Fold these 4 entries.
Entry 1:
Amino acid sequence: MIAIIDYDAGNIKSVEKAFAYLGYETKVTRDAQEILSADKVVLPGVGSFGDAMNHLKQYQLDTVIQEVASSGKPFLGICLGLQLLFESSEETPGVAGLGILPGRIVRFSDDMGLKIPHIGWNSLHLQHEGRLFRGIFEQSFVYYVHSYYLQAADESIVTATSDYGATIHGSVESGNIFACQFHPEKSGTVGLQILKNFCEL
């Protein structure tokens, strides 16, 4: 069973439907025991970094996520769920992230002359043989919706990047921790393959 963490951050239904389409059982929950007893755990989310951290703490899910991370169980963060795994975000100065992975979330510069938020399809540059990308071709397209992006402190964990006036660290992998800034559940057959690869870990 795959636990999808519910912390009032939206974007849960589309993630749930994608796993159901692939034939996997999911449970949308914020119950600690259900999350800890699941085979795999997913942290989706859209919205504000600061609000999301407040909700995680309100429901005591920050400590549950830390426990999952240290357990070796496969964990997948999606969009805001990726950002929360890191140390801080320019979106909410002074609010600490979960700090499971080293790095920070920064805002796209207005000086780039590009539309912010970055919404739409963008190609992936694959590196470090990420396990989520088995069967995925270089320059495959995925769907992004974000105004802030990851700068990982350790680039060896970055498994895919995209370019949008800056190099976006689009996906990371570190042990049992996986995360995507883009939305695999909205990325067609490429995204479904990524989710299938996660399910098969």
Entry 2:
Amino acid sequence: MRSRLITFFYYRKCLFPEDLADETINRVTLKIEEEKIGNKQAYIYGVAKFVYLESLRKEKNHLNIDEVTISENVQKYSDDCLEKCLNELSEENREVLLDYYSEEKQAKIKLHNQLSEKLNLTKTALRMKLVRLKRKLKICLEECAS
């Protein structure tokens, strides 16, 4: 059964099919001890499906180094250029831009809500403001690098 589960996870392109198969077997073993299950094979594949879905959420945070490609047109901007271009923005715009990208995950959402309230803008208007600021910053950085 373990080899079938490994195949199940392998064909779904999971990063760690053996670990997921073991996790499935562990969960099924615990459940079988607690209650009677009629169709064990169907039950095992049902548990495997949920283990697979959980793994998708966890694998979002993993990066497969073999799948990473570096774009040829990636430009490295010096810290001096970045600082110069940020200083060309108004103090308010610079603060908004830096604050907007300062947090991650749930804190980021909360921060964006606070920023939109502070600036008396809708969330869409705030995003559009950031698009314009980023465009202005990018143009400055490209001019500085050339």
Entry 3:
Amino acid sequence: MRILLTRPAGDAQRTAAALRARGHEAIVAPLLDIEIIADAELGAGPWSAVLVTSANAVRAIGDHRQRGALQQTPVFTVGDRTAQAMRDVGFSDVTSAGGSVSDLAKLVAARFKPPARLLYLAGEQRSGDLAGVLRAQNFVVQTALVYRAVVLETLPKLAGDALSTGLDAVLHFSRRSAEAYVNAARNAGLFNAALVGPAHFCLSDRVAEPLRHANAANIQIAARPDEAALIALCG
């Protein structure tokens, strides 16, 4: 299959290698660029736990001046890959929810009692409302913005060329990247080719929402919200 990847470059290259190992042609054309917020304000601890929902937050905390002060704090992540990334930057007490933001909220609520103080290392745009769910249960949550996504307004030439010459599928890892794909395709004058031509393999139902609203023809959802399950859709 010819498969388009629009996620940020570092993640896209890793996914492309996995696809190529399975015999697919992977085309990397990022629509999002991740900007780390240097010396982001984390607030005053101590914290009962640190919450992480993206490997982008790991990049931010890895170089942050307060990393050392946080390294003895338990960390809870949304998935296994992010958990391993936190271990790689020196955090030893790391637990993965192995699923979605909802799974992470349930895990934290099961491990701690309100009003435990939680530090959420977050992006400027977020999928789901982890902080809101936990605050509703009387936890104290400090949301620290440690990275943001900069979105391209139109499709990169490589993506446009791939759509023009025939594309089997597009992999969508986040709602934000799916929204960016729809908008960029519209601005490039390739809306129909981008939405009707290829299959759209999505990490979750929430990720698929912008594609459904745009009337994409073929949407498939991964059995689990992780990269391996998404790649499995490609065969």
Entry 4:
Amino acid sequence: MSTHPPKAQSVRQDGSPDGFTPPDLYARQVVPGGFTRVRISVGPDKLAAVHQDLAAVLQGPLKVLYVQLTDRQKGQLPKPVQLVGVEVEPAQLLGTLRDLQELVYADGRHQLWIKGAGTDEQLVLDELGVIYAYPDDLGFHDVCARHGLREDDGSTPTMAERDYVKVNFVAAADAQEAKLVWTLGLREWEG
């Protein structure tokens, strides 16, 4: 059970909470270009466990892309800062995800992209707490089923379909962000 706030919260137009809770489900999707993926929605109490188990499916060595969208103190960045790491060992990544949970799972300042060595395999955790696993693979489905997520046809709204969303920030995540960069050897990428 998570003791952290959610990365994001659905709100009314005036900013007050609207009571929406992210459903625990996954859905197969086909995206432009004919690529397939699995969209995964879970509440904050399951986010870390599901994400880490999905990351464990990826073949190493891994590439990591950390996309900082917002600076907690300065606000929305005019251009996202992209930091990349290559040749990251799966055990190193999983340890980092466990150690830096406030940043990764409770703070909406960033997206975290993990690319596996297998063909087109990739895992994206967005700033709203929605996970996208590429391609639509049975290994990802197995993880979802183990965590009790129901398969959906894609019609049930997730945090990504909400009209108004408040992204949360955690002050303790500032130091964790620096530790993530150092631990995974991330470097700024201008691509």
